[in-house]
Amino acid sequence: MPLSEEELRLLEQMERALVEEDPKLASALRGTSFQRAARRRAILGGVILVAGIGMLVGAVLLSQPVPGVIMGVVGFVVMLGGAVLAVTAMRTPTARMASPQGASKVRESGHTGFGVVDGGRKHRPSRPRQRSHGSFMERVEERWRRRRERGF
């Protein structure tokens, strides 16, 4: 649901007040620090992912069965954690939304950046359901009666 004109005006007034009150905080929130932090998290996630893969390879090469299995499980968990960290860092909309260009796009379009609503399904107008004749039990009894007559 897009913001009304009154809400947009109030939001812009609050932004101007924040810039006047604390320009250092406002400039920090504008985008470059968020983008750098997301990039750092993505790189860190990639490094952790490679370390987890290295642990898995080390576990395969280890000749002792019990420590190898433990090292393999730990390596898999580390690899999975690194992949999750890297993917979530790349997908966060805060870097896009915090930049001045992203904020102006939001104001112009009226959208907040959340693109998927209700699982992404498009709503179709619902058709009225055809009312079946009789209740469920009546239909079952009718089917049973027809089967008996046919000799099945």
Automatic annotation (TrEMBL):
It comes from the Bacteria. Residues 136-152 have a biased composition (Basic and acidic residues). Residues 121-132 have a biased composition (Basic residues). InterPro entries: DUF3040. The chain crosses the membrane at residues 42-62, 68-89. Keywords: Membrane, Transmembrane, Transmembrane helix. The keyword Nucleus does not apply. Residues 98-152 are annotated as: Disordered. The keyword GTP-binding does not apply. This is DUF3040 domain-containing protein. It comes from Nocardioides seonyuensis.
